[in-house]
Structures are given as structure tokens and as C-alpha cells.
TrEMBL record:
It comes from the Bacteria. Keywords: Membrane, Transmembrane, Transmembrane helix. The chain crosses the membrane at residues 72-90, 120-138, 144-163, 175-195. It comes from Lipingzhangella rawalii. Pfam families: DUF998. This is DUF998 domain-containing protein.
């Protein structure tokens, strides 16, 4: 395992740890309802903004370690990393009761910043299942191809369920998002440390 792979794996696991701990301790934040991106709002919003950036940059670094032998896989992981950086640059709009004092509704219209955040998020949430599919079809060890195939299917289903729940403001929307992130980011960490020469 190279330094580049280590950076990528630590960035993925660090992302999960930071948004989990910050969400549990953030006043007014409801983990089961509010998305991870909402943590970039409010007085402590800098924590999640920095988390987006560290994870995105770490993913790009990790992808560089994959590039020599797995060009397409590295490209997809790198795009996910860049989209995470963009997610930190453009924040979502306050809504649905967060930050505290925000109306408990969905706005009728969204700012341009929010729209760009949504576009970056779409790249992230489509990119991880896509990268896992590329890994499943690639020249990797058998167990890693099967794990990647399961991740591609599992994360795609979880993202779809999250998106549907988010549109309805359904209870548990935030939980579905976190399950998708957990499955995808653990796979990314395993990928970085398991690919020879990464």
C-alpha cells in the first residue's frame, strides 16, 4: 500500500467519522431527517465544509495511485473527489428546520448556489455506484470484483431510496443517505488499500 492509497483510505473513513460525530452533537440537527450537506450550514458549518474538501482532495490523491494500472476506475474516483470539493464550495439552502429558526418547509425556489450543490451531489451519488461497477468489471482480484458488484447494486438502491424519501420529506431520509454513504465510502477505503500498487 502506497502513501497515495493511505491518503485516499483515510480521507474516506475520516469523512464518515466527521459527519457522524458532528451530526450527533449539532444542536437542532436531526440525523434521521437532515442530509449530511446541511451540516455545512450554521455557525459550525465550516466543519462539514472542511470535511467535504479533505475527503475530495484525498479521493483525488488516492485516485492518482490507481491511475497507472486502472485508468478508468481512477478517473471515476477522481471525478467523485472533485465533486465533493464542489459540494463544499456551494452549500445547500437552509430548509426543513435547519439551521434552527429556519421554516420547517421546503422552499418553492432554490438559490443558484443550492442548484450547483445539487449538481455536484448528483455526480457524487451517481459516481460511486458507477466506479464500483467499473471495478466489478475490471482486472481486480475475484473477491474485490464481487464486493464491488455488490456495492454498485447496494449503493444505487440506497441512493434511489434516499432520493425518493428526500423529495417527499419522508421520515428517515437522512438515514437512507447515511447508509448509502457508509456502504460507498467503506468500499472506497477498501479499494484504495486492496489494489496492488495503488
Amino acid at each position: 500500500m502506497t502513501v497515495l492509497a493511505t491518503v485516499g483510505a483515510l480521507a474516506a473513513l475520516g469523512f464518515l467519522a466527521v459527519f457522524t460525530l458532528d451530526g450527533w452533537t449539532r444542536p437542532g440537527f436531526v440525523v434521521g431527517r437532515h442530509p449530511v450537506s446541511a451540516l455545512a450550514l450554521g455557525p459550525r458549518g465550516w466543519v462539514q465544509t472542511a470535511n467535504f474538501w479533505q475527503c475530495g482532495i484525498g479521493m483525488v490523491v488516492g485516485a492518482a495511485g490507481l491511475a497507472a494500472q486502472h485508468h478508468w476506475l481512477a478517473s471515476m474516483v477522481g471525478v467523485v473527489g472533485l465533486a465533493l470539493v464542489a459540494s463544499g464550495i456551494w452549500r445547500m439552502d437552509p430548509m426543513r428546520g435547519y439551521p434552527p429558526g429556519t421554516p420547517d418547509t421546503t422552499p418553492e425556489g432554490f438559490s443558484r448556489r443550492h442548484q450547483w450543490h445539487d449538481r455536484a451531489g448528483a455526480v457524487v451519488f451517481a459516481g460511486v455506484p458507477g466506479a464500483a461497477l467499473v471495478a466489478a468489471l475490471g482486472d481486480l482480484e475475484s473477491w474485490l470484483r464481487w464486493y464491488s458488484a455488490a456495492t454498485a447494486v447496494g449503493t444505487a438502491v440506497l441512493v434511489w431510496v434516499f432520493a425518493a424519501a428526500w423529495e417527499r420529506d419522508a421520515p428517515g431520509a437522512g438515514l437512507w443517505q447515511r447508509l448509502a454513504l457508509l456502504a460507498g465510502w467503506i468500499w472506497l477505503a477498501v479499494l484504495f488499500v486492496s489494489v496492488p500498487g495503488a
